[in-house]
Write a structure and sequence with these properties.
alpha/beta, 238 residues, Rossmann fold, single chain
């Protein structure tokens, strides 16, 4: 039985991944920061191990990985999903806002990869999946800081895949399009309708669409796939 560690696992895409991996026989640990009651309910529902940690803090990441190992054994799959978003004009971005997005969206993935990779390399097997965004591929107006962090995850994916490929570890990236999550809940009806019209499949994506892709990359189907950015975006032209 394989073990997966998912960051940002208490809600949205992360929670759906917890459910999907658990349903497919994985031992699951997920990291959350604030939503204690939600995390506890998800843990009871799925049997997954809930770990409270701030992914932007190196010491928290080390503790979270250690707790996952102690309870579930070695980690076969790492999903770097934790993220925060922000919307503002570039000239209005504060230094604190910029640093917060970098710390959570990028540094968190770096800390987890660095902490978990040695065991994967020693074992000569492992899967790392980074969750980026279509805005990391093309950029989004008034979301420069968010787009930058998601673009950086793509760079991390491509370069790390080359470095650890000889050790049997794959590193891939999923770039979701418009997905029905709390992060997009602020969009009004007209904005959603417009985005749906621009999407060839004519609908908003669901967390389950992203979770299914991650599960595929974690299984036998992903054996010869590495360094790739897979758009789960309904055909949205980017």
């Amino acid at each position: 039985m394989k073990t997966v560690l998912i960051t940002g696992g208490s809600r949205g895409i992360g929670a759906e991944m917890v459910r999907r991996y658990a349903q497919n026989g994985y031992r699951v640990a997920f990291v959350y920061r604030q939503s204690v009651e939600v995390a506890e309910n998800l843990s009871r529902e799925t049997g997954a191990l809930a770990i409270c940690a701030d992914v932007s803090k190196e010491v928290d990441v080390c503790r979270a990985v250690s707790e996952a190992r102690e309870n579930l054994g070695g980690i076969d799959v790492l999903v770097n999903n934790a993220a925060v978003s922000a919307f503002s004009l570039f000239t209005d971005i504060t230094t604190n806002e910029w640093n917060r997005l970098i710390s959570v969206n990028l540094n968190g993935a770096f800390y987890f990869c660095r902490e978990i990779l040695p065991e994967m390399i020693a074992r000569k097997s492992g899967r790392i999946i980074n969750i980026s965004s279509m805005w990391g591929q093309v950029g989004a107006s008034c979301e420069v800081h968010y787009s930058v962090t998601k673009a950086a995850l793509i760079g991390l994916t491509k370069s790390l895949a080359k470095e650890v490929g000889p050790s049997g570890v794959t590193v891939n990236c999923i770039a979701p399009g418009l997905i029905e999550t709390d992060m997009n809940a602020s969009l009004d009806g007209d904005a959603l309708a417009s985005l749906c019209e621009e999407t060839p499949l004519g609908r908003i994506g669901q967390p389950s669409d992203v979770a299914a892709c991650a599960l595929f990359l974690s299984g036998e189907g992903g054996d010869f796939i590495t360094g790739q950015v897979i758009g789960v975006n309904g055909g949205f032209v980017i």
